[in-house]
Specification:
five-stranded mixed β-sheet; mainly beta
């Protein structure tokens, strides 16, 4: 605790010369394959031999890998450029699934963890029926509604 006084302001510039960026959709459908785009940016002065890996889980299968294994791609990224690497992903469960991507070189590394929303397959349907309730002359009323529910629900 305390008070600090300085004669002039200091400036700070933060810059990460090697990093990963993911292009993820808002949501995906369970069981459908999607192209997972991993963008790797290299703002270093030398080309980087980069190993990009995505972990496959019981919730999200990456390529032909089993749960706990990594799908791996190797790419050389020229200096001051970016490269896109694609993986095939297939979500297995409904809800938010965790996605872990890493990029390693001999000099630097980066890792990104994101959540991907997986929705159920099918089409959402809704039905409505208007009912007029007149309680002018009565304190209560009863209305019988017929509801049809599919047998597999």
């Amino acid at each position: 605790t305390g008070l600090g006084v300085a004669a002039s302001r200091a400036s700070l510039r933060a810059f990460q010369p090697f990093f990963i960026s993911l292009n993820l959709p808002y949501s995906v459908i369970r069981g459908e394959e999607l192209a997972l785009q991993v963008n790797v940016f290299n703002y270093l002065n030398t080309a980087q031999q980069t190993v990009v890996s995505v972990r496959s889980t019981t919730e999200l299968q990456i390529g032909e890998t089993s749960a706990g294994e990594n799908a791996v791609r190797t790419v050389t990224i020229p200096p001051n450029q970016a490269s896109s690497i694609f993986f095939v992903a297939k979500p297995r469960v409904v809800g938010y699934v965790s996605l872990m991507v890493t990029a390693n070189t001999a000099q630097v590394a980066d890792s990104v963890r994101r959540q991907l929303l997986v929705e159920a397959e099918g089409v959402s349907k809704s039905y409505s029926r208007g009912i007029f309730v007149d309680l002018t002359n009565e304190n209560s009323t009863t209305e019988v509604l017929e509801l049809t529910v599919p047998s597999d629900v």
